[in-house]
Specification:
Blueprint: E1 3-4, E2 10-11, H1 17-33, H2 60-64, H3 67-82, H4 90-111, H5 115-140, H6 143-167, H7 171-190, H8 199-216, H9 218-224, H10 231-252, H11 256-269
Antiparallel strand pairs: 1-2
Length: 270
Amino acid sequence: MNRLNQNNLVVMGSFNWRHGLLLAVVFVPLLWIFSFDPIPQTSVYHEFADQRDLIYLPNFMNVLSNIPFLIIGVLGLYQAMSIYQWRVLNGWTLLFIGILLVFAGSSYYHWSPSNDSLVWDRLPMTFGFMGLFVALIGEYVSSKLSEMMLLPALLIGVLSVSYWHWTDDLRLYYWVQLVPLLTLPIILLMFPRVYSHHKLLFLAFTCYILAKIAEFYDLKIFQATGELISGHTVKHLLAASGCYFILCMLRNRVVIARASRGKSQRKQKS
């Protein structure tokens, strides 16, 4: 069983079935996805439903809908630096660096959609995916393990985008996206919780799933709203909402033991 040390860092106990399940959830999908033939990037991907221009701003709705990532990225980095004394910092910092860079990379891509510009959209997203994964490991499994994983996870994220760009094969990139999505519910449900407000992570998870659905129905949402807003723009807003829920969790959470003591003290006073 995991435990906290005096600095509220998670120390992993002996290896058990939970750790084995987590390893399986991480690596079995990798073997599974590479059992398929290479997955190329289709040119249709760049043909978004909403291609309206605003003065000199092409595809303006898909560009402007990235602004929430800028705001959340800046606020998230400030939040991460302000609470460094009592938790693992590096994973959350990498996550919010990724979110901040998504604003620049995604705006650049939607300004002129192509495989070359898509690299700069996907690269910061891998920072976010790997940052979230490392942060969850650090706060639910082992703080020391997360420190060891940070650089390898970052390199794997960069490699996944580079591998796609060099070989036109998305398999490794898809796996990098899947890792935090598959491990988040396992970690939250199977490992002891150290901090409060963990339910906001489930809301973030839900927002991301809805964002992928909105992306798939890009044209249908555009038509259903009378060409007011497209599914891809909705995707940006939902993904940013998920990032905001993570920010809210970090702002409001406390160590569960402290929260329990506070509640008991208030009951005694009443």
